[in-house]
Amino acid sequence: MTIVAVPTGDTGHRFTRGGRDIRVRVQEVAGGAGDGHVLVFGEPADNCLVRVHSRCLYGEALGSQDCDCGPELAKALDRIQDEGAGVLVYLEQEGRGCGLVAKAHGYRESERSGADTFTSYERLGLPADARTYTHAATSLLGLGLSRVRLLTNNPDKVAALTAAGIAVTAVPLATTPLSDRAAQYLEAKRQRRGHWIPTDTSSWESQAALLDRPEPQPHGRN
């Protein structure tokens, strides 16, 4: 890969999506570009909308209907555009932090055994979820944000930002599963990781105890 010298200074420019314009600035996430990027839309202030999102090549770029990653990201961006300001922290944590090849192995094992992908990862000797959110929290604090409305169904993200000293109001994202496989994945996230899935009958408040869980420790990638 060719190494280039990236200019410094303001990156602000117009961003058009769905026929609507919004200004955006881009910077590397705390930890460096290899860990992700921060997209600052408009002029966000305390208590703005924030989405902390991990890369999913299948769901975002390739239009896979096997997960809810693409629809969640789209809905989060819709909300940010509606308000005219917000932050997207896009983390390079493909395959729940284990990488795309590990993700493919997990899918293959799930097809073979019928198990959910969390169980499949564990059978392959991988952590069920190796993602961490320390760099995301540091990046948000670096923007001067001490209170955020976090667009998420994942209590681990709420817990990580809260542990870093950020006051978090969770704003769950309701998405419609695009396939039976996606519906099964949502149920596995609810059962295995305590995600609040707005399509079921439980309330976010019923998951409050999960918010006290410490952030998962990082694991090496295979």
TrEMBL record:
Reaction catalysed by this enzyme: GTP + 4 H2O = 2,5-diamino-6-hydroxy-4-(5-phosphoribosylamino)-pyrimidine + formate + 2 phosphate + 3 H(+)
Which Pfam families does the protein's record reference? Answer: GTP_cyclohydro2
Give the protein name, as stated in the record: GTP cyclohydrolase II
> Which residue numbers delimit the GTP cyclohydrolase II domain?
37-169
Q: In which pathway does it act?
A: Cofactor biosynthesis; riboflavin biosynthesis; 5-amino-6-(D-ribitylamino)uracil from GTP: step 1/4
**Species in which this protein is naturally found:** Nocardia cyriacigeorgica (strain GUH-2)
- Residues of the signal peptide: none
InterPro entries for this protein: GTP_cyclohydro_II, RibA, RibA-like_sf
